[in-house]
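FW: tagging you since you asked about this chain on Friday. Here's the raw sequence from the shared folder, copied in full. Didn't touch anything.
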Amino acid sequence: MEKSRGKIKKYPEPERYRAREKEMLATEIAEELNDSHSLGAFQTIANKTPEQQIRIFLSIIKDTYLIGKIKKSRGAMERFRLQDIAGELSEELIAKETDTLAGYWIEHTPKFKLVILFTRDAEDIIRPYLQKYKELSSIIEVGTAKYSLTEIGNIQEEVSSSVGSMGIPVDSAIDVYKNCVKVYVAEEDWTKLNRALSEGKMVLPDCVEVETVDSLAEPAAEN
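HL: got it, structure written out here
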């Protein structure tokens, strides 16, 4: 067999193939959203985000863009990416900061930001996470609240159980924005609950708010 002569041809390394795939993906995003001016931004997104997530985000953005809910495709794509990262951060905070984590949510207006509340030392607790999740450092806003999510959850269970044991059906929910528990009671049962509170048969924590409703939600039917 005749041996080949000359220099050995070097084929592109896997990294170069991946880089080319990212470029093609960024171009596809720009074409799909008809936004060639934002190609550089889409390239950055393609480099940082798994392709499967990008395609999910792209599908959502295209649908909302077509009905006029999203005006700036580049900004929309970036927000979806940051929301995904914020989800990873929230999971880590729930696992590691149970004693102090008091709430978290994303606000879109008037400014896009991620709000995170702790019961104490908010700046100190969030500092190492800002190093890990650098993409979020410019949108995170921390604050303090009286009760942790764990404490609020326990209060919700205790109050619902106590009121229920008196024969008063209620619904309840946690309001993370106000760091409190909302207890909903039907108007027909409000007098009974108010009497129990007035007579001292029941004392509600300061983080519990009672609201009357026409009727409680019907329990889901079992299959």
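FW: The first helix runs from residue 14 to 32.
HL: agreed, and The beta strands are 101-107, 113-118, 140-144, 170-175, 180-186, 208-213.
FW: great, closing this out.
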